[in-house]
Specification:
Elements (H helix, E strand, L loop, with lengths): L7 E11 L31 E2 L1 H16 L9 E3 L8 E3 L4 H5 L4 H4 L16 E3 L2 E2 L2 H8 L9 E8 L6 E8 L5 E10 L2 H19 L14 E12 H5 L7 E4 L4 H14 L2
Antiparallel strand pairs: 1-9, 1-10, 2-6, 3-4, 5-9, 7-8, 10-11
Helix pairs in contact: 1-5, 5-7
The structure holds zinc ion.
């Protein structure tokens, strides 16, 4: 078992903006009878559509895995997290020792493999569920689609065997909707700090060039990030906020800003 330390936190605050309609599907159990064919996931209390942090994080992980694979051959070692019939193969390190030196698993976490001595490596990243901003809730309350805060669109899928048309109603969050983003990166190893933050930035950029949720090939799920602030804090600062030296506020994850975070920790030596 790894001896893990917590040296500080980096809190990334901002927004995710839907540039096109967004569909993050609800599971079958949550479907309402007589409802739309493919509903979006909603908060059970407020009924507002939201983006589960786990979906968001999973997408970032998948994109970063593909992008790092050419230079990190160990990422080609995959595990089937699906079933035999529907295999889903992703890279996951088998134990915490391997994960510590793995650029993907140390950010996104890994679960133990079947071999003796395998153990989990909890993720250094925490991605909160993303909720609509109050402004978006207000704006979407006014739209008249017969649905709460959303729109629906017919998509005509063709059955590959019978060639029969199979029109389905897909529910989506309209373009222009904004969700609040909060991502926390736990600082555990100063040698990894710069690389981890650069890889997180890369994952954000890759997501802007990909699609979130379902039906990306039909144009759904284009999003953009609006980063408001990034605050790095040492544990001493979190304990006693009067220690101004223990934190730094940045505007982006650009290289110069990452270096400011790095120097905060590497000069103060905690
Ligand atoms: Zn790994």
């Amino acid at each position: 078992m790894e001896n893990r330390m917590l040296l500080g936190k980096t809190v990334i605050d901002g927004f995710v903006i839907c540039e096109t309609g967004l569909h993050i599907g609800a599971s079958k159990e949550n479907m309402e009878i007589g409802a739309i064919d493919a509903p979006v996931v909603r908060d059970p209390v407020t009924r507002e559509p939201y983006i589960p942090g786990s979906s968001f994080k999973g997408k970032l992980r998948t994109l970063l895995e593909k992008a790092l694979s050419p230079s990190e051959p160990k990422l080609l070692k995959k595990r089937n997290i699906g079933t035999d019939k529907n295999p889903v193969k992703i890279h996951v390190c088998d134990n915490s020792n391997e994960a510590t030196s793995c650029k993907l698993c140390r950010l996104f976490g890994s679960t133990a493999g079947r071999a003796e001595g395998s153990d989990n490596f909890p993720s250094r990243l925490i991605v909160r569920d993303l909720y609509l901003t109050p402004e978006s809730v207000e704006r979407l309350s006014d739209i008249d689609t017969g649905l709460q805060y959303t729109e629906w669109k017919f998509e005509n899928a063709i059955d590959r065997v019978t060639s029969a048309a199979n029109p389905r109603q897909i529910e989506r969050v309209p373009r222009g909707a904004e969700f609040k983003l909060e991502v926390i990166y736990n600082i555990e190893d100063l040698e990894h700090l710069e690389t981890d933050l650069k890889n997180l930035k890369l994952a954000f950029e890759l997501l802007e060039l990909d699609a979130l949720g379902g039906h990306g090939s039909r144009g759904y799920g284009k999003i953009s990030f609006k980063i408001e602030k990034i605050e790095a804090m040492s544990i001493d600062y979190i304990k006693d906020k009067s220690k101004i030296a223990g934190h730094v506020v940045c505007k982006s994850l650009d290289e110069t800003e990452i270096m400011r975070i790095n120097s905060l920790f590497n000069t103060s030596k905690m």
